[in-house]
Amino acid sequence: MISRPYWRAVAAATGFLLCAALPALAQVGKPVRLILPISAGSGVDAIARTAGPALGKAMGQPVVIENLPGAGGITGAAAVVKAQPDGLTLGLVSNNHVINPSVFKSMPFDPIKDVTPISVIGATQLVLVVNPKVPAKNVKELVALLKAKPDAYNYASSGNGTIIHLAGEMFLSEAGVKANHIPYKGTGPMVTDLLGGQVDMGVVALNAALPYLKAGTLRAIGVCGNTRSPVAPDVPTIAEQGLPDYHVEGWFAVVGPGNMKPADVKRVHDAFATAFSSPEVVEALKKQATAIKPGSPEAAAQYFRTEADRYAGLVKKANVKVE
User: Fold this and answer.
1) Do 293 and 151 have their domain in common?
2) pLDDT of residue 311
C-alpha cells in the first residue's frame, strides 16, 4: 500500500508543474497584435490584410492588425521594441526599418539589435506614377518635362527618408533632373493628393496603385524593379527606358521584440511561413505584384545588416537628413 505522504508529495509536485506551465498555457487563444508601422492603404497594409485570415489560422489564435504610422516607421517599430518578448506583439516592417538610422539624427532604439528578426517574407514591386494632368507618358517625356521646367513640378513621398522618398530621389539623380519634394505622413494621404492633383508624381507600391492605374486616375511611368510585372505587363521598367542603373523594390519582414525565446521565434516563423506560402495567399498576392519567399531568422538578420549598409550609401548620396 502506498502511504498518504507519498500521494501528498505527488500532488504537490503536480501542482508545481501545472503552475509552472500556466504562463505558456495562458498564451493559447490570446490575440496576436501585428503592428504595421505604416498607414492604411499602403502596399504592406494590403499584404498584411490579404494574409490575415490564413495567419490567424496558422497561429491558432486571432491576429489583430494595427496601423501605427509616424516618423518613417519609428513610431510603430518602437511599440514592438517596448512590448513583452512573448510572441504576442509582432511587427511587419519594410525597407524603412533599416533606412532610419542613416536618416534620423537620433533613434529611440536600434532597429537591428533591439528587435528579433524572424523572417523576410517577400518583396513587392514599386511604380513611378504621375497625375494624368502631367503631360508625360514615359520616362523620356517626364525627364524632358522636368528639364524644361526644373522648378515647376513636385513629387510626393510617404515621409522624409522613407523608401518612397529615396526611390524618388534616386530617379531624379539617375535622370539628372530636379523636382520639389513634398513629404506626407504615410502613403494614404500621399496617394489622395496624387489623385487630386495637389502633387504631380511619386513612387507607390504597385499593388496599392493598381486600382487607380486601371481606372485611369493615375498614370504609370515605369516599374522600379528589374523586371516588368505580370499584373501590369504593358508598363515598362524605368531601367529599360534609359536609366539602366535604376532599381528599387519594397521588401517586408516580420520582427518581434528583442530577446524572444528560440521556441517562440520558431513558432512565429513557422506560422508566417505556413500562412504566406498557402496557395490562396500566394495567388492573391501574385495579383498584387508581390512575390513570396519566406526566409529563416538567421537570413533575416543578415539581410537587415546588408540592406542597412546599402541604404546608408544612398542616403548620403541624396543628402537626406531628418532632425
Assistant:
1) no
2) 87
Is 70 within 8 Å of 36 (Cβ atoms)? no
Do 118 and 270 contact (CB within 8 A), yes or no? no
> What is residue 199's predicted lDDT score, i.e. its pLDDT?
97
Residue 1 has pLDDT above 80, yes or no: no
Q: Cα–chain-centroid distance for residue 183?
A: 18
Do 203 and 186 have their domain in common?
yes
The residue whose grid cell reads 513640378 is: 153
Phi-psi region of 230 (alpha: psi -120 to 50; beta: other; left: phi over 0): alpha
Q: Which three cell numbers stand for residue 306?
A: 546588408
Query: Which of 271, 262, 276, 321 has the alpha carbon at shortest distance from 123?
Result: 276
Grid coordinates representing 123 are 518583396
**Domain with 268 in it:** 29-123+250-318
CATH of the domain at 161: 3.40.190.10
Name the band, by pLDDT with cuts 50, 70 and 90, for residue 28.
low
Q: Is 65 helix (H, G, I), strand (E, B) or coil?
A: strand
Which residue in 99, 228, 221 sits closest to 160, CA to CA?
Answer: 99
The conformation of residue 116, written as its DSSP 8-state character, comes to: E
Residue pLDDT, tens place only, 71-121: 878 999 999 999 999 999 999 999 999 999 998 888 999 999 999 999 999
Cα 207–Cα 211–Cα 216 angle in degrees, nearest 5: 130
Same domain, 202 and 233: yes
Cα distance between residue 80 and residue 179, in whole Å: 36
The phi, psi pair for 290, rounded to 5°, reads -120, 125
Same-domain pairing of 275 and 194: no
| 147 and 104, same domain (yes or no) | no
pLDDT at 23 over 50: no
Q: Report pLDDT digits (tens) over 174-218.
A: 999 999 999 998 888 999 999 999 999 999 989 889 999 999 999
Asked whether residue 13 is domain-assigned, the answer is no
Segment 140-166 shows an average pLDDT of: 92
Give the chain's mean pLDDT: 89
